[in-house]
Design brief:
With 310 residues, the protein is α/β, with parallel strands linked by helices. It has helices spanning 18-28, 43-50, 66-80, 105-112, 142-145, 148-155, 163-180, 196-202, 204-209, 237-248, and strands at 3-9, 32-37, 55-60, 89-94, 97-98, 118-120, 123-124, 132-133, 137-141, 185-187, 215-216, 263-270, 273-282, 286-293, 297-305.
């Protein structure tokens, strides 16, 4: 399979972080790359990207259209230079995650062998938000990326004042217009973790346990230390870059608040024996409760969605 990665990146300081060059380097072993950053930077910084093998084009200019604005510019470069037809798959990928912690070539081969035309790492849905593939890693077959409707979608991407509108108009809508046209979809998380769309933000170590080799940057502060990533990391030197990235963004790893952990909210005991214990977890869009017998045996889990937080 020939792959083209359209990579969207952003750095508030206008630097090319070591975690970014690591990610791009890993992808460069799997296909070609077009990289667009939504920030200004120096020629010396941009040269770090251009020196990576199989990077066809790299640009860094503040456009304010977030990741989808970078996807649009990368796609237009590939289309206008008539290279799209050279590839079987185009992937929309961004740097909102850290990783991969290990080789993802088996994952891509699995995704591409499913007989679908639309795929990715993590899918998400609930009672309000329809099924969609999270836009930080989306795979699109040639049938779709050479279609008129996909070209129209990409060219229509515009700056939005509300970041939620980006999610609704572009991330979720992209999945919907593809699925509604009869294309089949599949996400790597479907066979591994039903709650991956929430867990990837709430519990990064659980995400790694489920076999998804990425950490959302927004969840990095929920890891007590990079040493907990060692069992999952194929290249432990990469963890130094993760730690440096956390320091640059003032993210505390060692004593970070664990507001997404389960906390005990009820216990019934008899002769000091915990017969029934209930734990509560408060997520952005869901409340979870787990019940245990003798504080060891799980017997029940109940979830309540919080529609007002969507």
């Amino acid at each position: 399979m020939k792959r083209l990665f359209l990579f969207a990146a952003y750095d508030r300081d206008g630097t090319v972080d070591d975690t970014l060059t690591y990610y791009l380097g890993e992808l460069s072993r799997l296909g070609d790359l077009v990289v667009v950053m939504d920030n200004d930077t120096t020629d010396n910084e941009l040269a770090k990207i251009k020196s990576i093998p199989n990077v066809l084009y790299a640009a860094a200019t503040r456009h304010g259209e977030y990741d989808f604005g970078s996807y649009k510019r990368a796609y237009q470069y590939a289309r206008d230079n008539k290279i799209l037809e050279n590839y079987d798959w185009v992937y929309l990928v961004n740097d909102s995650v850290l990783g991969p912690l290990y080789d993802i070539s088996p994952i891509l081969k699995d995704l591409e062998s499913r007989g679908v035309d639309f795929t990715g790492m993590v899918s998400n849905s609930d009672e309000i938000i329809p099924l969609h593939i999270q836009s930080w890693f989306v795979g699109i077959s040639q049938k779709i990326f050479q279609s008129n409707f996909f070209d129209d979608f990409m060219n229509d991407i515009k700056r939005q004042d509300d970041k939620d509108n980006i999610v609704l108009k572009y991330e979720i809508r992209l999945s919907r217009i593809i699925i509604q046209r009869g294309y089949k979809s599949y996400a790597y998380s479907d066979s591994r973790c039903n709650d991956a769309g929430f867990i990837i933000y709430a519990n990064p170590l659980e995400t790694l346990k489920k076999g998804i080799p990425f950490i959302k940057k927004a969840s990095l502060g929920r890891i007590k230390g990079t040493q907990y990533l060692i069992p999952y990391a194929q290249n432990t030197d990469f963890l130094n870059a993760v730690f440096a990235n956390a320091n640059r963004y003032n993210i505390t790893l060692d004593n970070s608040p664990r507001r997404f952990d389960y906390k005990k909210c009820f216990r019934f005991t008899f002769l000091s024996i915990p017969l029934c214990t209930i734990y509560h977890q408060n997520l952005r869009s869901v409340q979870n409760y787990k019940a245990y017998i003798f504080d060891k045996i799980p017997v029940l889990k109940i979830s309540f969605r919080k529609a007002e937080n969507i």
